[in-house]
Every structure is written in structure tokens, then in C-alpha cells.
Predict the 3D structure of the following.
Amino acid sequence: MDLGIAGRWAIVCAASKGLGKGCAKALAKEGVNLVINARGQDALEGTANELRALNASIEVIAIAGDISTPDIQEAVLSACPHVDILVNNNGGPPPGDFRDWDRDDWFKAVEGNMVTPIELIKATVDKMAANGFGRVVNITSGAVKAPIDILGLSNGARSGLTGFIAGLARQPELASNNVTINNLLPGSFDTERLQGNLRKTADKTGTSVEALREQRVQGIPARRFGNADEFGDVCAFLCSAQASYLTGQNILLDGGSYPGTF
């Protein structure tokens, strides 16, 4: 299917690896020009080269730095000739026990996973509406629907973003001008973050990483972890011309793990 977005420009945050990279790859295949961001310069440049090799017809601009900081936000926005697509993504806060977190931990989590995407949305959606096309996809977490006890910082910050988006996406001045805003909620995907959490749990419990992986997989109806490329394909569809009537939704990709009806 031709998604009808070739030649458009997208900003993809935290795109050097994992789910962000999966989204960038899927958009590159569709002919979308990219401004990609991540903290690590070397990994980001490596991904930029991969994307250029994937589709020689597109332009790829890499801006390294912490997207939570105003100067990097400005650099990323300035590098994009016109923002048609915005994929908000940022590293999640660390797991732990809420009794061990102080105010700075909470402020950092909210800044990275709620305030930062809101700032980028604020800087782009009105121009999208004026141009008659815009797609915003926020990568949040399946924990928004089914909270995970050790991810309290993420549960709180991402749920705050979800509540904000529920109202914003339904503003007529955006929705009636072909600007859609949706959230993608990953479950267990085979990323470095998942692997790191498994190692931390293994160290804490004395269980092997392999045993923990198998235990986790058995709790997923699909009996596997997701992969970044399939996540990216769903993101690309949400950015497509065909998805113009889909907005304000939380799309859960978790292999059937969430047990609820709604």
C-alpha cells in the first residue's frame, strides 16, 4: 500500500535504536525525509547512514543531543524545513521503588516523558493545521493501560501525556484541518531497555536472564516479544494519508497481553 506521504518531512525523536529507529526506517521506506535525534552522536550517525542506504531518494539530517533541553529542541525544529510528521519518543525513566525517588526524580520523568513532547507538539501543530496535513505519534507505553509496579515514574508521566492528548487531539481547529494525534503503546518489545530490565531483575532475584525471558514470553499470547520493525510499520500507517480519520486514540501493541475489554 502506498501510504501517500512520500516527500513529506518528519521529526523522529530517540531514533538511533529501538522503537524510534523502527519508526524512522518505516518512514524512510515510504519516501519521507527525516530529521532524527538521539543523545549518542555515533549511534545516531550510524542510523542516519542506514536510513540513507535504505532509500537514496530521501534526505536525512541527524541532530544529536538531549531532546528534553530547549536548545536541542530548537536545533531539531530548525533543521526540519516543514514538520509534516512528529514522532515523539524519549528514553523512559528507570525502574524502582517509589519510596526511593525524590522530587528531582519525578520532575525529570515528567520533563522527559510529558513536558518535552507537549513542547514539540506546541511548536508544530498550528503550522500543520495551516498546511492542511499533520501527523503526531507519541510513543508511550502499554503501562498506561496496565501499570507496572516498578515503572511508577513512567506510569505517572506517560499517563499525564495521555490525558493531555485526549483533549488536544479533539480540538476542531486541528482535527478538521487533517491534523491527527495518536499514541502508540508498546508492550514487550525486544529492545535494549527490555534487556536491561531483565538483567536488573536477574541480578536482584538470582534468576538467569534466559529463564526470565522465557517466563515473560509465556505470559504473552503471541508467545514472543515484538520487534522494532513491526512497531515502525504501525507508526507509518498512523502517519499515512489513509489514517486521516483516526485521532485521539491509544493504539496498544502488546501481542495480546492486556486482558481488558477496553
About this structure: The two ends are 29 Å apart (CA to CA). The chain has a mean pLDDT of 96.
